[in-house]
Amino acid sequence: MGQAFSDLLPGYQNGVFLSYAHVDDQAPAGFEQGWVTQLAGELEKHLQQLLVCESPNLLWRDRNQARGGEHLSELLGGAISSSAVFLAILSPAYVGKDYCVGELTHFVRHCGPGLGARLIFAEMLPESELQHLPAEARSSVRVRFFDPPSAVQQLRRYGYPTLQSCAQSKDGVYANYYSALNALVESIKKRFLELGYRKPKGDANRVAIRAPKLSRTQSVLVAESSDDLDRARRELCEFLRDAGYEVRPAGSYFFGSARFREPFDEDLAASDLYVQLLGAAEGRAIPQIERPYVLFQHERAAARGRPPRLLWRDPALDPRQVSNEALRDLLKSENVFSGTLESFKQEVEKRLARLREPAPEPVAAATPGPGAELKHRKVFLNANQDDQQVLNSLAGRLVGKVVVQRPLFSGPARTKRKVRRELISDCDAMILVQDRAPASWAYEQLAESQKVRTRAFSLLGLCAEEPQQRIDDLPMVPPELRPIRPDQLESVVGAL
To answer: Rounded to two decimals, what is the model's pTM?
Structure first.
C-alpha cells in the first residue's frame, strides 16, 4: 500500500478525478484496451515518476458503466469533491451524456476557490457544442489529442487505436501523443504544487541515511528503463535522493516529443554519473529514429564520453536469451554490474565517492629521442557499399601518408561486421564517407564505435559534399565529430 494522498496534499483524498464517457473507452476490435484506459495508464505512470508518488489515489476513475442520469452516487460525489484536479476527456459523447455533465457540474459547485486552475480538459475529439457545460468550465485549460481535419488531411486522433499501432506509422501521431501527454502532466503537476503538494520523504520504516558532506551536491542521471523496471528505477531514485544526491531528470523526457534530445543533453552535461537499469525488454521505440529509447540514451551518453556510466542487470538474466542484438551486446559489456539492486545502490555510492577524490597530477609525456620514427597513423575510411566508388577515390589521395583501412564489402554479413568492429577498435582515426548512404547508416556506425572503442579517436570525421548538413540530420552527434569536405581530407589527415 502506498502513502495516503492526503498526507502529500492536505485537504484532498484523491489527486486526479478522471471523468469520461464510457463509450469513448470501448476497445477497438482486436485490441484489449480502450483509448481512455491507455491514457490513464500513461498519465498515472508519468505522474508517479514526476511527483515521486505511489499513492493508490493519485488517479481516481469510475469503472462502473451502469452509472447514468443527473444524480450521482454518494461514493462518486464524494470522490469528485475530495479530488484536487478534475480531468475531463472531452468529446461529443462526453457532452451528450447526462452523467458526464453531472460530474462536471458537481465539481463546479463543490470545488470552492480556484476552479479555473483545477479543471482540465483533455480533448479526445473536436467538440464545439459547449453550451451544455457549466459556464464556469468553458475557459479552463485544454490539451488537444488530435489534429483537426483540413483540406489536405482527415482528422487524426493521437494514440488511436493504440500507441503500439501508432508507433509503426510515419505520420507523427505517436510523437504528438507524447507531446500532448507532456503538456497534460505538466499542467496537473503545476496545479498540485500550487495547492501545496509535498513530495514524500520515503518509507518511515527505512533506516535514515545521512547525506554525505559534499562541497557540491553530486548529480546522478538515472536513465529511463523499460516498463518492467519502473518500480526498481523509482526505488533507486528515492534512495539517491535520501542520500543527498540530485537526481536527474526531474520527471520524464517524453520521447514521443520532437524536442526530447535537448533536455536529455542538458542533464548529461550537468551530471556526475550516468546510471541505467537494464532488463530483457528493449522498451518503446523512438519514432523519429526507430530506436528503443533505452538503447538511444546509452548510446548518446557514450558518444559524449562523459559522465562515467554505470549500468545494472539482474544476475538471473541471461543475456544470451535477449532477442535484440544491440541490447544483448550491451548486457554483456564490462560496464554492466550484475548483482542485487541493493548491492548496486552501494556500488553507485562507491563510484560517486571515487569521483569526489582529487585527480592525480598529470605526468609529462616522454619526448621521442633524436631519430625516433613516428609510426604511420591508421585511418579507417568507413563507407556503405553504395559509396564504395567514392571511398576508393578518397583512399587514393591518402596512400603513402597514412595506413588506409577499408571495410569488407563481400562475404557473409557476420564476417563483414566482425572485420568492421576490429577496424573500429584498432584504428587511430575513423572517417565516415557518406554520399548515397542514409543518415541511419552513419548513426549505426557511430553507435557501434561507442560499443567497441576503449579509447578516444585522434580524429572522428564525416566526409561529404555538405558534411555539416549530413551531421545535422543525425539523431546522435558526438561532440568530437568533425565535418570534412572531400577537398579538405588530405590536409585534415595530414595534421594528425
So the answer is: 0.45
